[in-house]
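Hi, here's the filled form for the chain we discussed.

Project: internal
Contact: R.S.
Residues: 684
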Amino acid sequence: MGFRVGIDTGGTFTDAISVDDQGNMQTAKASTTPGNLIVGTTDVLEKLSKRNGLDLSNFMSQVSTLVHGTTTGTNIIHTRIGPKMGMLCTKGHRDVIQLRQVPKEDMYDWKHDFPEVLVPRYLRKEVIERIDKNGNVYIPLNEESVREQIDYMKKLKVESIVVSYLYSFLNSANEKRTGEIIKEEWPEVEVTLAHEILPAVGEYERTSTAILNAFIAPAVNKYTRQVEGFLKEQGFTGQFLYIQNNGGVETADIALQKPATLAMSGPAAGPSAAIAVGKLHDELNILSIDMGGTSFDIAIVNNGNFLTKMDNLIEGHRFSLPVIDVSAVGAGGGSQAWFDVTNTLRVGPKSAGADPGPACYGKSDEAATTDADVVLGYIDPDYFLGGEISIDKSLSVKAVKEKVADRLGLSVEEGAFSQYRIINSVMANSVSYTFTRRGYDPRDYVICSGGAAGGVHALPIASELGIHKVIIPKYAPIYCAYGMLNVDLKHDFTRYYTTPGDQLDLTKIKGLYEDMETEGLRTLEQEGIDAEDRILIRTMNVQYFGQFRSIEVEWPSGPITEEIIAEGLKNFHEQHKVRYGHSDEDYPYMFTSWGLTAIGKMPSIAEATIEKGDADSSAAIKNTRPAYFGDGFVDTKIYDGDKLKGANVVEGPCVIEERMTNIVVPPGWKIVVDDHGNYVATDN
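And the returned structure, exactly as it came back:
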């Protein structure tokens, strides 16, 4: 028997799932140890092996593929605990990274400080060289100036060097030679060449992205070596993959060549989970939400495809590699209640996280969202995480009373329900804002709700948004880990060539794609992908003359001809019409850049079906307990999720208990269980 495993390291918990050849799935969850992330990884693998009836070594020897999503890169940038870095740049350009370009999430927020540059000015050194705007060598590389700056950085014990020269994306000769000199003079230092990380126009964006790559590289390398060492000790001989920022996966060896592809990999698999679940119900327009202990992640799946973006900020630093378009807000099970200067109750974004956690963990006296859920009867203290974690309801009652209810002059349950409604509104407003900014209407979508806390809050969020259908996957508590099982290998390549549409040089385009396709196929071959499983997708960025932003569209493969280019232009006009409400095929246009996505198809997984039943779900009732739904406590049916059968129907008010999550069904909602154990909720 063989297994595929997905592991997602979150801010509060590390989640894991395994699936065998018959489609049987097992799940595991363990606390994340922020200072040593491998602890959570090893813990969930131990738990998965036991749930599959095997010892760890025997289990790992049968794992063919392990896909991992890690927050290592994000954590390093957030805490700024990275290497001491230096930078070599074209003479006269040392302050480009300091001057920035649109440096903040909200460029009009003058109160928000600029982020501290990761390379201080005294370690940004100038080199005599220059490539002109056409890619020609204007000033040859002065190799002595390179060696002089290397000696300077040696004396200051720099650990990592970024090389970013002007127009290196058009001609990388000077950057490459500089890299060779550094290795000759100082073999042990880490070197990042900007054109290898982001070969695209935009000196600031290219340099900033390269700096982030260099900043996280040592930590990613160290963590990867730790994981690979552990896996090897346990007899793992399969394929170790990382989930990337762009929603695809790549082998660990490829990831180590460009660690920046993992900088925002944490929530990247959530939309893939939504797509997989949506296919079971013929849903192509999906709002993916993922509510964990710390954050609430929002992603849009439109017509069966997730959205990506190139203009990103990580802790205020510009990052311009393709990233799944996920919006995150500080709302989760650990979100703490507090009062602002107007004495208004707020919940989040500050979170109790995994340590100290909500008050019911016994390490804090702050009232968190989970404490409110416990007080309201939505969570059984004796069955939290299937009974693996012991929590104390009396501590939740005490925290809610002292921190919320007494200050509002309310009963404890009214105070807890105020917390519940506020956190739901925070999340619903965040969804509305996310959709509005992108030109979509949430009422045209169904919700796919993930995360251990998602099921407790998803249906009230849907009601606030005017959404009438919610799908809660059976494996919602390990949402991103589940999504990793349905992801292909994916690599993005970009080449810059801007020209008016009537001056396009087909010979140049052919050269660009010959280069990208060779690189893409070589990468997939290195990852062991058979030729018949390799797919190359071409893209072009086009804009009308005078526009500031371009639109990326696909265009056909095959011999590059004017007719094939015209097909891409047709897609551009159509997309412009959809996005902005108008298009004009007679208006002058420009090509700005050209892209290629190399995909390596992974074997699809077969999901086992559950026992078929009928509408009667009474056999799955565990007991009843009081739960609060706004008008006082009501005697509420509690269902055992593992005993529910396909086609069973439950109606609110009720609570469905799973080992790692609960689904709270308010009055006016009902749930039908599908053939795979997923919960499909609709309002009456």
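Let me know if anything looks off before we file it.
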